[in-house]
Amino acid sequence: MTTVLEVATADLDADAAVRLAGVRKTFGRGRDIVTALDGVDLAVAPGEFVCLLGASGCGKSTLLNLVAGLDEPSAGSITLRTSRPAVMFQEAALMPWLTAARNVELPLRLAGLGRVARRERAAELLDLVRLSGVGRKRPHELSGGMRQRVALARALASAHDPAESQEGRDPALLLMDEPFAALDAITRDVLQGELLRVWRAIDAAVLFVTHDVREAVRLGQRVVLLSSRPGRVVQQWNTTDESDAAETTEEITARLREVISSHAAA
């Protein structure tokens, strides 16, 4: 049976990798002001995979940018207990003049890791995403799916340091903004499976933004639904029971339609 969570349930964890409390975000001034997010309370536990779901324009990407530190909230607070949050976008955004391996090495180099150590770590991460044989290729020589795998390896290089995964160290956090949206259905399905495999192999929390209900249910341990603008958390579902996947997908889809319809009627 589908488990629906109370909005505040996940926010009781004092050891959350990231916690948002009363987060509000506005853009513009005066008559042109737009409220993208309003009173968002959300927490992600260390190692938890949370999917953030909502209609286009509801503030999902804005929320992710705030967590990443790319922007600041207008009100409320965001508390991070993680090591170097890493972001993966819809576009791979690889450096075209660098090889796949050098792209993965880039955050390690910026972190001050020595040449030998970062080459070894890049090789490990490319192997983890099953690209051990393409380290010397440049982005234009790779398929769209392969470029996204390189982008995933680069994000892991930034977010996941084995030395920081020991007991007492801060957990890692990976922020993903619709990373598979631009891919064809078959490649997307494959990479969803690969992401789950990689996530199970590492010690990192994931906050994954999507507008695709099936993707959210397949990937997430918890699905969080945002209202249409301004974005607020309206409902959450525990999606760990795979036997309820079809029922949960239908329930979330119906609730999402209600949210969109109520916004359109306002």
Automatic annotation (TrEMBL):
InterPro entries: AAA+_ATPase (IPR003593), ABC_transporter-like_ATP-bd (IPR003439), ABC_transporter-like_CS (IPR017871), ABC_transporter_ATP-bind (IPR050166), P-loop_NTPase (IPR027417). The keyword Lipoprotein does not apply. GO terms for molecular function: ATP binding; ATP hydrolysis activity. Gene3D superfamilies: P-loop containing nucleotide triphosphate hydrolases (3.40.50.300). Coiled coil: none annotated. Residues 18-253 form the ABC transporter domain. Keywords: ATP-binding, Nucleotide-binding, Transport. It holds the Pfam family ABC_tran. SUPFAM superfamilies: P-loop containing nucleoside triphosphate hydrolases. PANTHER family: ALIPHATIC SULFONATES IMPORT ATP-BINDING PROTEIN SSUB (PTHR42788:SF13), TAURINE IMPORT ATP-BINDING PROTEIN-RELATED (PTHR42788). This is ABC transporter ATP-binding protein. It comes from Solihabitans fulvus.
